[in-house]
Amino acid sequence: MRSASGAKPPRGRADPADEPVLAVMELLGQRWMMRVLWELEPAPLGFLELRRRMGQCSSSVLSVRLHNLQTSGLIVKTPGKVYELTAAGTELAAAMRPLWTWSRSWAARTGGERSE
Fold first, then answer.
1. What angle do CA 33, 18, 101 make, to 5 degrees?
2. Quick one: pLDDT band at residue 2, thresholds 50, 70, 90?
């Protein structure tokens, strides 16, 4: 929508198009997305093994998450039908490692309580 002057209205602070970090947070904020990356970080996995490790995540949701991660360039499905992190996915995992480390100390301080 344009204003009477023809200029686009200013985007809000939370617009992912304005800040790449917000786009990443929006992508990773989808349920199960971080878990997929967590499971693929140590080694590539086939769909069935990944599904087994994901617990309550349905096969259809996992398929959508894998597709979104592929489209985002964070994972790739190899000809051998396993999913693995791309170079960008590996960089993201390295960037997330401090958060994963921090989460352990946070869980220890709070007794591992989760708020949902």
1. 40
2. very low
